[in-house]
Amino acid sequence: MADASLYDFSPVLRLALLGIAVASGPLAWVWLRNKQAAPAQRLAALTLLTLFLTFDLVLFGAFTRLTDSGLGCPDWPGCYGNASPTGAIAQIRAEEARLPTGPVTHGKAWVEMVHRYLATGVGVLITTLAIATWLQRKRGGAVQPRWPAFTLAWVCVQGAFGALTVTMKLFPAIVTMHLLGGMVLLALLAMQAVAYRQAQRGTGAFVIPAAARHWLVGAYVLLWLQVALGGWVSTNYAVLACSTFPQCQGSWWPAMDFRQGFELWRGLGLTGAGETIHFAALTAIHYAHRLAAYGVFVVIGIAAWRLRAGPLHRGARAIGALLAWQFATGLSNVVLGWPLVAAVAHTGGAAALVVALTWALRESRAEPAAVPRSAGAREVSA
What we know:
382 residues
């Protein structure tokens, strides 16, 4: 378990004020651009902007992880009990003198704290959305406040995972859950954005063929599985376990230890017994993600193909483009040795796919099954 001394809540008020300052810019921008609009339109605009900023936060979280900055400030929520690394210069310099490459350096401390500032700002925006949607509903608004309220609750859970990520020293299961939590936030905000869109145009979800809807649901389920596998690869630093494609280590089935690789509750680089994890376990983690990617790619591709001619044709094209993006960035990570740009871009592609598929699901419903002619005739005669 994490050491209780790693939690220092003394800078909470200052961090909250910084979060309000970060959120005030987007709030002012939405208000000024939609000053003459109805309150519901302003809320719709704020929801979209919060979705965009949450997407940016997920990308910056990936950047923080991939630059090994997750322990740049090894306590929470501040940095050695301060609201910024500026107040912790002495402690950071001492750690840099002891270990010049980290995990604690001045640059990494700033990356970690900027991530926390952005997260706090997004939390303020989500809180504003929950309160404003509830007030608007009391005045007869069309959008139910339960999803904004659930999103607010979830962002609190996500903050707890962020704290545990630091205090439990990048425990792979916790870091993976933190990544998944960010994706869930994106999905929740996308659902709200679609709800406002439907309220503005005065129609519900588009009707699509039942088979297309079934493929879409299947693609969505498999996408979440693949995101979890990708997070497990990233948080275990297993990307370079296979440096060739399509084979791995010159073999179609290299030496792998799935039992050790998928032992979930263990420290970074260790087994549950505290021993150093075997390379074969890292290979199993990487190759499981790669093998699953083939099937997920096919299912999502079929789902996009089935949506191409209907009312969601633009979304279908976006999903197809994102699939190509994921293939290119995933391949780049392997053959180019995990460059930072490709790694962040791969996380961004996964996040964008979560948004795109959530949007398509929320905007669609299956057409009702046709009533058999004989059954209809009996009903009329009765």
